[in-house]
Every structure is written in C-alpha cells, then in structure tokens.
Amino acid sequence: MTAMPQTTILTLQSKILGCWMGKNCGGTLGGPLERAFSEVEPFDVWFYPKIQEGGIPNDDLEMQLIWLKALEEVGVGLTAQDLAHYWLDHIGYNFDEYGLSMTNLRLGLRPPVAGYYNNFFRDCMGCPIRTEIWACVAPGNPRVAARYAFEDSVVDHAGGESIYGSLFNVTVEAAAFSISDTRKLIEIGLTYLPDKSLTARCIRAAVAAFDAGKDWKGARLDVIAVGGSHNSQFSPPNIGFQVVGWLYGNDFGDALCKAVNCGYDTDCTGATLGAWLGIVSGIEPLPERWTKPLGDTIATSEPWGLQNMYVGSNPAPRTIPELADRIMKLIPKVSAHFGAPPAPDNIAAMCADSEIQKLVVQSPTIISFAVTPKLELQLDYRDTPAIEAETAKAIGVSVTNSHPTTESAAIAFTPPGHWIAEPCKFDVTIKPGETWTGEVTLRSPRRSLVDNTQSLLVRVQPQRRPANPAVALAVVGAPVYLRSEIFPAEGRTAAELIAQVFAPEAIAHPSAPDDVRIDSLMAPEARGGSWSTVYAQGNDIAVCVPEFVDASACGVVYLRAFLYASEAQPVWTHFNPRVPGKLWVNGTLAFQCTEHRHLRPAAWGAGEGSMVGDVPFRAGWNELLIKMATDGSTPTGPFGAHLVLSNKVRRCEGLTDVVWTRFPWDV
Fold first, then answer.
1. Is 667 domain-assigned?
2. How far apart are alpha carbons 20 and 36 in whole angstroms?
3. Residue 627 CA: distances (Å) to CA of 203, 540, 558, 608
4. What is the mean pLDDT of residues 44-57?
5. Are residues 468 and 493 in the same domain?
6. What are phi and psi of 486, to 5 degrees?
C-alpha cells in the first residue's frame, strides 16, 4: 500500500482528534440534562451545567473504546457475533436495550435476533451514539463505515429505526473526512435510509424548517410533529435534533447548545453533533472555552459501568491522543481489507450502494453460519425465537453455494431432548451460485420439559470435504401464566377498580406460617374461579389479555406467574402497565399504582412513581399475582404492560436462571 503523504496524515490526525474532543464536549454539555421522558418545552442552557476534567463518563464514548479493542484483537473483519462477546466481557450496565439484548445473549440467542426479540427499546438511541469509531477507521469511506455500524447495531437494535439513525450518523461522519459541505453530507447520509423511515422524515423536517426560514425552536416543533415520543431515547426525533443544531448553529458552542436545548436524549445529540463538527473542522479550530475545561483525559465508568477495560496486554486508551494514535494504526488495515476510499469529489461513490440497501432491509430473524468459506447456512425463526409448550414452529433453512463446483450435502437436525424435528434430515445438491431453501418443523413437548432456553443442533456436511461441527440455534421457552376471567368495569373508573377487592386477591391465610401460606398458593385452584393458560411474549404481558389490547372489554383481570428459583434471593422487579395495577409476591403486596403511566419497561424502572424494587423470592416456587384495571380511557396510549425481572446487585442484569416456563403442578 502506498504511504499517505505527511500533510494527509496530519490532517487526518487533526480530524480524528477533533471528532473525539467534539464528542466529549457535546456529551458533557448534554449529560446532566438527560431525562427518561421527553419535555414539552426546550431547555435554555448555553454552557456546561457541570464540568469535570475528562468530561462526564458517557456510554456514547466509552463503549467505543471497547470496539477499538475488538478491532485490534479480532481484526478488521469482525462481525456482530464477535462484538456480542465483547458486550458480555466488558459492558456492565443494563440500561434499556443494552440490558434486554444482553439477557438475550445470555439465553444463547445470537445477533441479530438478540437485538430484536423482546426488545421494547430497539428504536432507541443505543446504537446511533457509538458510530464514531467506525467512521474514524474508514475515513472518507461511508460504505465501509456503514457495514461496520450495521454489524454493531444489530447486536442490540435489530429491526428498529435505530439502525437507520446509526447509518445516518456514521456515513455523515465518514464522509466528513473528505467533504465539509453540510447539505451534501446530509444528502449522503439520507441515501443509506429507507425513504419512508421515520428517521429520514425527521431529518427532512429539520431541513425543510430551515429552508422555510423558521427559527430553531420552530424546527424543533416540526421534528416533534413528525416523530415525537414520550420516550426521550426514541431515536428518530433525536437524529432530527442533531440536524437542527447543525443547520442553525452560528458556531461550535451555539450548534451544540441548540441541539441539546431541543431536549430528549441530550447527551447523545450533543455528543454526535460535536463529533460531526470536530471532524469537519479538525482539532485546532475547536474553541478553547469548550475544550480546555475537559482536557484530553477520557472519563469512564470503570468499574461499575464498563469492566475489564484495563486488564491484560491490550488495555483501553485513557486519553484522546492515545485513542487517535491507535485508530491511525487501524486505518491502513481497514483500507487493505475493504479497499481505499473514493476520491473526495466522487459523491456517488460515497452514497449507499445496492448491497448496503439490501443489508438495511434484511430480516432480523435470520442467523447466518459459515459452513465453509463459500457455503453459507441461514436459519430463519420467521417471527420469534420463543415457543410455547406442545406447539409446532416452522424454521426456514437455506444453504447458498458460492463454490465454483456443485456441492452435495446432508443437512441433519438434532432437537433438544423430548423435542421433535421434522424432517430430521435433508440431502441436497446445490449448483454454483444457487441457494437451496427448505423448512424444518420443531415440535415442543409438555410444559415440564420446556426450559427457559434449549438448542436445536444443525449440521451441514458437504460430501468429499472436511467434517464440519454442528451449529446451535437457541430456542426460548415462552413465559407461561394463568389468566382469570375479566371482571366487568360496570361504570367504575380504573382507580376504583384497582382499589376494589375481587375474588382472586381475597384469598388469605393470616394465621398460617409463611411457608404453609405460600405453599398453599402453588395449586391451580388456590385463588378460586376460572383460569386459563396463556403465554407472554417475553416481558410483554399485555398479549395475555387481547380484549384489553383491542379495547373490546373493560374491567379487571388477574394473571398468575409461577417462578422457580434455585436459591432464595432478592429479585429487582419492574411491573410497568399503562393502566392502574397491583403486584403481589407470594401473597404479599409488593407494588400498587392507581394512575395511568407511560410504558418504559427498563429493568431499572421508569422514573418517579414506578412500580419497581427488590422483592424476596424464596428457594423453590414463587407466585406472582398481577392485577390490572382499565375503564377504556387511554390518557397514556393503548393498553400495554410489561414485567421485567433482574438482579440489582449485578446492575439490573436480566434474570435467565429463574424458571418461567412451567407451573408447580406440572410433571
């Protein structure tokens, strides 16, 4: 490879330093203002609300230090599967989608399904905020940066709008190493997004407001009109706010402040815009007023947030100059692997190509495996990796042959114990450049034989080639509940209904010892009345009451879950219905709320008034009794409810070892 001229190296170093310093400035500005729920009015902040050397620790920046380690240790051809292991090794906090996707990884699910299944937050800001590392190792090469960002994003956001935000951010950043024109950069970024995506519409709303002569506050309102949400971390409007700050900013600080003052996910919008501006200008023009208070140290959340950052032979960088130096060493390796970036005046080559456009719309339920370097197996869950007891699930199977020769192979399926796979084998012949497709049906056994997670083994063995190992496709057991009849509202409000005692909660044994009292709840008839078996979709328990979801009924409903714990432990429990509700654990009232609330089912809670906290689980079986009441009013949106269980000591790490697939009486 031809060595870069010294002037090019110096310019590149300056832009990389500007990127990370700008990101630190914007994140430090916006960090203290971030809220869980969005604000009606904009903020009015024009300098750092809080200053500390190195800036405020921020996941936006510090997680990318781990991705740097991954590039150095795995190599520049790394994939989502590689990044998944770095998540589990180094990411300790379980905010929103981070926690839900890592719970999926611990259940054995692989990306992109790990970022798709049971992930309420897959449209949020977790991945658009960590794109700079990919842009910096592929400067001037947006297509390569986009491929990296896609692999990163699907680990915790597959199938969501957030991937579009990530692709917009990373391609703008990568192109900004070669182009400084704001409007051209926005146009390049938009080519990577589906035209009708909410993210693209929010970006265009910001641009249209600017062109129409509106002020930045008017542009903010236009973005909210297109994509506003009660959830501050919802990504489409936040990407729009970044563009508002960029277009309306009179200088570096003014641009950051206008983006942050739009509200919502303030540290993220400020940090990303700071990176954009830092790449375009380089480090030298960044105003000392903003950079000097922070210095060049990188503040991190090690050890409570990130973990194992500085152990071993390849510790993460501690300063922005060290980070930039290590990135500079990766750039020629990335160029050698993917090809040199296009010329700065070749705008067309910076826009999305057909391969990227196909990548963006591919199904988040497909898992790919390399059988040989040129023989690819794909397994498609079609919808969800979860399955109920005594049901059948079809799984799509395809094998693509890129060898120059026709390949004959046996595809064999080994189901989990007591499960059935039909058929158990295919014998296939695939011509060069062709794909064979088929389907296997997986049949689950009775409830007592369904675990939280189990694996279907699939082995593809081409004839006259080296023996291949089987690959494992994780299958999740769906959480099972008992559901009561619906007790009609009969004109009562939801608050009145939640206060009234109905038959299922009237069961009491006040004089019995705790163990006897609790044991008595572990029978199907313990709470009287008529109960039916229903299944949740992960944490989403609203699907257990379709009459409330489609508003065809009003009143009170009860759900009973039975959870088996191998040892006594406190379980951090977040019960998050949109309607008034109560939750009892082993007959003791744990939470109650008489108000309607917004859905924000994060493990840590949903702000003040959340039904969240540690509840004691005993060793063995535990009963959770849930009560929800609706009178048909929807002040916070249509009926919805989630139940999230985690371990607070482990930073709200999702529980995977408490059995949710059975009842105590199952045999």
1. no
2. 26
3. 42, 15, 5, 21
4. 88
5. no
6. -90, 125
Question: Using CA atoms, how far apart are residues 228 and 231, in angstroms rounded to an integer?
Answer: 9
Token reading at 596? 């309607």
- Cα–Cα distance for residue pair 499/593, rounded to 1 Å: 10
Please indicate, yes or no, whether residues 339 and 375 belong to a single structural domain of this protein.
no
Give the pLDDT confidence of 184-196 residue by residue, as tens digits: 999 999 999 999 9
Report helix, strand or coil for 113.
helix
The dihedral region occupied by 538, where left means phi > 0, alpha psi between -120 and 50, and beta the remainder, is left
Q: Per the structure block, which two tokens stand in for 436?
A: 């064979």
| Alpha-carbon span 204 to 193, nearest angstrom | 12
Pull the structure tokens for residue 153.
Answer: 């994003």
Other CB atoms within a 10 A radius of the CB of residue 10 amount to 12
Q: Are 423 and 405 in contact (CB under 8 A)?
A: no
Decide if pLDDT at 623 tops 90. Answer: yes
d(CA 212, CA 517): 69
pLDDT at 437 over 80: yes
| Stretch (H or E) spanning 569 | strand 569-577
* pLDDT value of residue 479: 99
Let me know the angle formed at the C-alpha of 263 by 260 and 267, rounded to the nearest 5 degrees.
Answer: 50
Residue 644 contacts residue 584 (beta carbons within 8 Å): no
Residue 611 near residue 574, CB atoms below 8 Å: yes
- Residue 662 falls inside a structural domain: no
2 pLDDT above the threshold of 80: no
Q: Which of 444, 386, 455 is nearest to 419 (CA)?
A: 444
Look up the pTM and report it.
Answer: 0.96
- Where a domain ends, among 477, 502, 523? 477
Residues paired with 575 in a beta bridge: 611, 643
Tell me the pLDDT of the chain averaged across its residues.
96
Closest CA to 477 of 423, 524, 537: 537
Q: If DSSP codes are grouped into helix, strand and coil, which group holds residue 665?
A: coil
Question: DSSP states of 340-354 as a string?
Answer: PPPPTT-HHHHS--H
How many structural domains are present in the chain?
Answer: 3
Contact between residue 495 and residue 590 where contact means Cβ atoms under 8 Å apart? no
Q: Structural domain of residue 182, as residue ranges?
A: 6-359
Give the Cα separation of 3 and 26 in Å (integer).
34
Instruction: Give the Cα separation of 235 and 164 in Å (integer).
Output: 9
159 touches 266 (CB < 8 A): no
Q: Is the peptide bond before 112 cis (omega within 30 degrees of 0)?
A: yes
For residues 341 and 280, give the distance between their C-alpha atoms in angstroms, rounded to a whole number: 17
Cis-peptide into 546, omega within 30 deg:
no
Task: Report the C-alpha gap between 645 and 603 in whole angstroms.
Answer: 7
Q: How many helices (H) and strands (E) does the chain have?
A: 21, 21
d(CA 391, CA 32): 49
The Cα–Cα gap between 401 and 214 comes to: 55
| Domain C-terminal end among 344, 359, 374 | 359
The CATH number for 445's domain is 2.60.40.10
- Element spanning 372, H or E: strand 366-372
